[in-house]
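Notes from hallway chat w/ T.B., transcribed later so I don't forget. T.B. wanted the structure written out for a chain they're using in a teaching module, and asked if we could keep both sequence and structure tokens in one place. Agreed to drop them here.
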Amino acid sequence: MSNFLHFIVTLVVMLSCSLLNPTLTAQAASSSTTVYEQRIIHSPDGIGKYYMGREIAKVMGYTGAGWLERPSREEQEQPSKIVSVLNLKPNDVVADIGAGTGYLSFRIAPLLITGRVLAVDVQPEMLEIIELFKHEKNITNVEPVLATLTDPNLPDESIDFALMVDAYHELEYPQEVMQKIVKALKPGGKVVLVEYRGENPFIAIKRLHKMTQKQVRKEMQAVGLVWRETKNLLPRQHLIVFEKPYLPNS
């Protein structure tokens, strides 16, 4: 067989395999250093991008802002309990990552007498809503921060808490964002993740918008965070606390 004919046969075999296994082409194209996998066939609720075995969910756009502010949210999810268990100090700096309309930011801010909330979001429209609420509520210690898909835009060792409520599963670049958040945390700083419990199939939330505690812990461990506790005090969500460890001699 000539070299040219051998090349054609090999190419046909490779193309046939990729049609039978739609993940093969993406896997082969991925470099050995990447942590993500792209799949052609995937959930309609996801972006076809996988991280540590989990498909990343589509982002809820700013058009869903009304759902975040729905009057029934307190009864359904009891978010006031999130604020109560953070044990915030008056001078803490809290980054509300994926802040959306600032629903949690504005409930945390009054507790921070000399501290502040950094309301971080990638959607300028959400930050405009936060600015509107700042004036309506006359709250001055909530600061909107425009993030990128890979960077929350927070200075190194500047925050005491990073809070992510129903947001982490939508990060398009979770490892990059979490690495930047870890840098932004002061030594001993906390990351608090609130996610719908993926272990429970009866929680009426789309599958990709839920996470198991096991998956959350695996992904946080990958960026050097240490699990401290999981609280199941909320009706439908885990509240999982991680800590940035102190460096030796720090």
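Follow-up for T.B.: The chain has two domains: 3-57, 62-243. Might be a good example for the class.
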